[in-house]
Amino acid sequence: MLANYHTHTFRCKHAKGKDEEYVLRAIEGGLKVLGFSDHAPINFVEGYKGWWRVQPEDAEEYINSLRKLREKYKDKIKIHIGFEMEYFPEYFDKMYNYVKELGAEYLIMGEHYTDGDWKETSRHTNHTGHTTEDFKNYVDIVIDGMKTGKYLYVAHPDMFNLPENDAFYEKEAQRLCEASKELDVPLELNLLGVYDNRNYPDERFLAVAGKVGCKMIFGFDAHDPHRAFDDKSLIKAESLAKKYNLNLISDLEDRF
Fold this sequence. Notes:
8 helices; TIM Barrel; three-stranded parallel β-sheet; alpha/beta; 40% helix; five-stranded parallel β-sheet
């Protein structure tokens, strides 16, 4: 593994550790590229900032801190600075322009909600109780997000929690994977899910991805410095990639 583009910081309130500790762990693990992609801030919903996101007042400091580390460690590792950001069609232009003005170099799509998380009706895609129609809507939105051409890749595309209805799940997963291949937007095999034994990586999804042949990339989704290079989860992820014959790529440096 040469690159990891999915790294958080303490600013999202559910990660911990100093920025520099993530960099040092990545170097120790042998990574050549480290991308920081903390949860994108929101600055356009009155009275809502999202407790789990980088706060707007912290966003500039986030960028500046990482720029300093990039310069400090430029001879040891390449550092990219971006955000993990949902695709909310109605608000995408506002969100995109805001993070680009802050200085984001790249985005990864993390569709934690299919509607604005500030809405009372919104439900996390990882929660239980979703319907097949909810999953179809999720796939539609992820595909539309990929079509914008603004995302480096899709993080944990199999986060959506639909443990039953295998035939329907596999049909929709195939639609997502085929769009990924056609649009050349890679999908992530998420190592935080491996570490925490979450509902993802979903092996039903991986089986479909292997058959379709869409590009896949590992992402540590690090929320503490030790997981900026998590060798135990990496070994398990490599086993999954081999089991399902995934079209695994090592980095996306040609896209910067």
